[in-house]
Structure formats: C-alpha cells, structure tokens
Amino acid sequence: MTLSIRLCEAGDEHALNAVGIATFLETFSGVIDGAALINHCREKHAAEVYASALANPDHRLWLVGMEPNGAPVGYLHMTLPDLPVAYDHRHVEIKRIYLLGKTQGTGIGRRLMETAFRDAHARGFEEVLLGVYSKNPSIGFYEKLGFRQVGTRQFDVGGTLYDDYILGRSLVAETA
Questions:
Q1: Containing structural domain, residue 140
Q2: Which of 15, 21, 134, 157 has the CB geometry, 3.0–4.6 Å to 72, for a possible disulfide?
Q3: Which DSSP letter does residue 29 get?
C-alpha cells in the first residue's frame, strides 16, 4: 500500500467530507447513538465546513491519498487552539487526525503527525495540543509521539457528553 500526503487546497472539501464521515462512522458506530452520529456527521463534516477551513489561513489540512489514484483515506486538520486549557500564541491544535482503519499500522499516522509538527515548528509554534476521546485506543499512539495529558473536557454529541483528554507535546526541541 502506497500512501501520499499533500497539503489541501480549495476544492478538497468533498474529499475531506467523505473521509471525515467515513472515519467518524468507522470509529464511533456502536459507541454513539445512531441518530446523534448521523447528525454530528451532517453538521461537523459537511463539505461547507471544510471549505470554510480551507479558506482560513489559520487552518492547515493535509490529505492522505492511496496511490496510484489518490483515493482519500485520511487527513489531519491543524488550527489555532479552541480547548479548555491555558494556551497562547505559542500553541497550535491538531483538531483532527482521521485515518481509515485499513491504513492504520502502516506508519502513515506518524508521517502525518511529523508533517504537522514540522509545519507548526517552522511557523513558530512551541507546543501542539489535541483532544481525544478518553477510551480511544489511539492514546497509546499519541504517547509514543511524546504527548502527555494536560487537561480534560467533555465533548457533546447529540446531547450526550463524552470525556476527552487534552494532550500536549512540546516542539521546542524540534529541528526544521
């Protein structure tokens, strides 16, 4: 399996929409109520939401494509933080890193995160933050990348609150 990473541009909103919905359903079906899951996907993963992010210079999105045809199989969305922990101009948030299950374990997640780390460091950020569902098995992946818990929050999907961990990782020792 050959996977590529590229910075997104206007016009990629439909690929991001498809991957966002597919990965959210794959991850949370059986965890979140079905109707709430559908409504969440319709509201948070609409192509218009991604188009707005792509038009905003504070947002960076990278798309993972499966070669040879570039079929979208994942993405990473990084932006200024919106988390209930102390942060300032030195912080950036990985809002989402979504990969279809068939790509997990291939090393693409690490490559995608390292791409975001290099970009954030080059733009002068010193710490990366992210929120993750407290029962998500990907927490071990984040810990291997040097993340540590810096807070908690509750995430509302369809009126049900889910516990999230907020994780942070320093970029100070990173090299460009």
A1: 3-170
A2: 15
A3: B
